[in-house]
Amino acid sequence: MQTPTTRLTTRAGVRLDIRLAAPGDEFPIDQFFDQLSPEDRRFRFLATANRVGRSLIETMTRNDGRDATWLAADADGGALLALAMLCFDASGERAELAVAVRSDHKDHGIGWELMRFAMDQARERGAQWVEAIESRDNVAAVNLEREMGLSVEPLEGDPTLVKVSRKLGSQPA
């Protein structure tokens, strides 16, 4: 069964088809992470790794009704350009958000649109807060999150990281 798709267009005119990841998407997700620069992989996983583990990729395809991974593909060519993950705490009130954009497709508004989409999904699923942990060195992501209304504060216990967060209102992001 094909999962529903949402079409979004970025400020730069990139048309995206966004859908939930599903079993069978492991290979395109693996290829996507291979296309990230080592620095982008480090920022996404807060660790250096040449490869993303198979078990993590399989987890991304098992959307359980609350935690979810969305794939953003080029609507004109089908290539996977970005993905977003939401992971909820036990209460469902907080959702951790992680977005990754292919290194060769940055600066086209893809991260912005996918982040806005994911925050709307978090709100629809009952989250009151969205948050992320970022490397202080990931200036582009932290600036984007500030522009989207997330506050930035030091992460207690680790001077290399910051916590970004935003209370979700009743209106879309």
Structural description of this entry:
- This protein has 173 residues and is of the alpha+beta class.
- The chain has a single domain (6-128), classed as Aminopeptidase (3-Layer(aba) Sandwich), CATH 3.40.630.
- It has helices spanning 26-34, 38-45, 54-60, 110-124, 139-147; strands spanning 6-9, 15-20, 68-74, 80-88, 94-101, 129-135, 151-155, 158-167.
- Strands 1-2-3-4-5-6-8-7 form an 8-stranded mixed β-sheet, with helices on both faces.
- Strand 4 (80-88) and strand 5 (94-101) form a beta hairpin.
- The chain is globular and about 40 Å long.
- The protein starts with 5 loop residues before the first strand and ends in a 6-residue tail after the last strand.
- The mean pLDDT is 88.
Outline of the structure:
Helices cover 28% and strands 32% of the residues.
Low-confidence sequence ranges: none
Q: Tell me about the biggest sheet?
A: 8 strands, mixed
Radius of gyration, CA atoms, in whole angstroms: 15 Å
Report the principal-axis shape: globular
Number of strands: 8
Helix content: 25-40%
- At the third CATH level, what is the topology name? Aminopeptidase
- Give the domain tally: 1
Per CATH, the architecture is 3-Layer(aba) Sandwich
Could you state the order of secondary-structure elements as H and E? EEHHHEEEHEHEE
CATH class: Alpha Beta
Q: Count up the helices.
A: 5
Cα(first) to Cα(last) distance is 30 Å
What is the spatial order of strands in the main beta sheet? 1-2-3-4-5-6-8-7
Q: Roughly what fraction of the amino acids lie in strands? A: 25-35%
Report the average pLDDT across residues. Answer: 88
